[in-house]
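On clarity, I found the account of how folds are encoded harder to follow than it need be. Since the whole study asks how a given chain folds, the encoding of that fold should be made plain. The format is easy to grasp once an entry is in front of the reader. For illustration, here is how one protein appears when written out as sequence plus structure tokens.
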Amino acid sequence: MSPCCERPAPEPAAPLPINAWGDAIYPPAPAPRPIPWGKALVLLAVAAGWAVPLFAGDRAAVRSFALVFGSILLEALPFMLVGSLIGGLIEVFVSRERLTRHLPRGPLALTCVAASLGLLLPVCECAVVPVVRRLTRKGFPLSAAVAYLLGAPIVNPILGASTFLAYAGDWRIVVARLGAGYAIAVGVGWLMGRLFANRPARLAAAADSAHAGCGCRHDHGHGHAPVSARRVAALRHASDDFTAVAHYLVIGAAIAALAQTVVERRAVLEFAAVPFLPAAAMMALAILLNLCSEADAFIAASFRGLVPTHAQLAFLLTGPMFDLKLLLMYRTLFTRRAIGVLSVLILLAVALAVAALGLAGKAGA
């Protein structure tokens, strides 16, 4: 074969970059295509949901749907806005060097610390998603990001106080909820880090593609910009995160409202009366209700006397980690495969924790 017909040797693949914790940084999977009907129609759906009662007449089901839909949005949107602002501040004012300087280097130690960061930065499950988006941009490893994502809504003083009030000062429920939530966050985060050590799990954030036009540099560049410009940049990043997640919250709220309107709670309670199934019933109820983690303890406490204590804990552990709106909001963070694995791990971990708490309660009785 003549030299002109010879194929050139393939160039060697460039090595993957390494973050501060020694993990290979895999290129993020492409972000999902935006909803084709646009965010304007989502806002129209919000307005329509709140306007429905004005034209519903005596249709109780329609009024119930609109009431639940509106209450979920009013409950979640302020917290998600706070989370977006925190994420914007982290993006602009916290450099990679500053972040890594104060955190452990070992993967397991970092995962354990990340699961407890809610004690210093208490956020609910809606607010934590934008924060995690920004932490992953800073090179936060997957295991630590998942641990913070699951742990922050449970392991925080606000949730502990609300649970304490809802259960009339019963510290056993508070300790069981926070302790089990921390253990689940660490375990699931560590497993996700191991399972996706050689494959991408995170999506390219919507804001990643917008950096070229945002008029700012990141990490080092922000530190040399005027404070006023950095504040504007933080608000711009917060707006990007909020708009990227808000429409998933609206869709999840609509699905949850429909589920609450169609599915009767009496059917759930009848299912809970079957031996060995109360915990599963309460987990399903938590997924359907889409309550804010800082208020769900009062709903769980209303089931005292109807289901065992460990089944109430199943409700308290599942909701902040996995429900209908979170399932959609996770699409802004992870690939579909990662979401599927994460969902299975969360439900299995909650089931195992609740079973252990139930056995411990019987042994202590």
